Amino acid sequence: MKTARIILLAPLALFRLISILTISAVVALVGWLWLKLFGFSRRLQNWSMQTWGKSILFICGIKTDKNEKPQNGHFILMPNHRSYIDIFIVAAYNPAAFVGKAELKKWPLLKIGAKLTNSIFVSRAELQSLVSTMHKIKASVNKDIPVALFPEGTTYKGPLTKPFKNGSFKVAADTGIPIIPMAIHFKDEKDAWIDDDTFVGHFFRQMSKPLIHVSVRYGKPLVNSDYKILQKETREQINAMLEDIISRNG
C-alpha cells in the first residue's frame, strides 16, 4: 500500500522507470538482431553500452561533471560504488564489460545484455569460477574491451570508501592489466542506495527530482605484481579524488 502511494505521487519517477525498461528492451532487441546477423564485435559492445547508458542518463536528468576519460580499452576500471546509477555512468562514458554475480544470469534482459556487452559472471564460492573469470577478464582486455568492477563489493554511502575486496586486485596483479581508479560522488548524499533501502522506494524518491548531480574523476593507471600494493594505491587514489571533489563542492 505504501509503495503504491509513493508511485502515484511520483509521476516523473514513474515515467523514468518505464523509459528505462523500454530503452533496455529496445537495446536488447536491436543488439540481439545485430548479434544474430553479424556476430559479436567491439562495435556492437560499444554501441550497446553507450546507447543504453547515455539514454538513461538523459531520461533521468543525471548531470555529470568529469575529467578526461581513459582513451584506450586496455585496463580494468575500478570505481567506488554508491548506487545503481553508477552502472549507467560507467556504461555511458566507459563502455566496459561488467563483472557481476552469477545469480544475475537468471534475469532475462541481463542474460541477453551480457552477450551484447561481453560482461562476465562469477560465482565467488567456486575457485574454478574465479580462475575462469581471470581468463575472461584478460581475454576481454586483449580485445580492447575494458572491464569494470566495483572493488568495495557493495554500495557504500561514504563520504570516502569502505575496505576493498582482495579478489579483483589479485586478478589485476596476476595478469599485469593496468587499473584505472574512478571516483563517483553524488552532490545529494541521499542519491546513494545503501543498506536495506528498497530499489522501488529509493528510485521513486530520488528520481522524482528534476536533476541529479554527479562528479566523476579518473585517476592515473596503476600496475603492480603485488595485489596488496595495488589495492592500497587504488583506494588511496579514489579517496583522494573524493576528498578533492567534496572540498571543491563545499
Keywords:
single chain; seven-stranded mixed sheet
In short:
With 250 residues, the chain is α/β, with parallel strands linked by helices. It has helices spanning 2-8, 11-38, 42-59, 85-93, 108-117, 127-142, 167-175, 199-206, 227-249, and strands spanning 62-66, 76-79, 97-101, 120-122, 147-148, 179-186, 212-218.
Radius of gyration: 18 Å
Q: Please tally the helical runs, counting DSSP H or I stretches of 4 or more residues.
A: 9
Strand order of the largest sheet: 1-7-6-2-5-3-4
In the residues, how many domains can be counted?
A: 1
Stretches where pLDDT falls below 50 for ≥5 residues? none
**Helix percentage range:** 40-55%
How far apart lie the N and C ends? 39 Å
Please report the total strand number as a whole number.
7
- The arrangement of helices and strands along the chain is HHHEEHEHEHEHEHEH
Largest sheet: 7 strands, mixed
- The fraction of residues assigned to DSSP E strands is 5-15%
Structural class: alpha/beta
Shape: globular
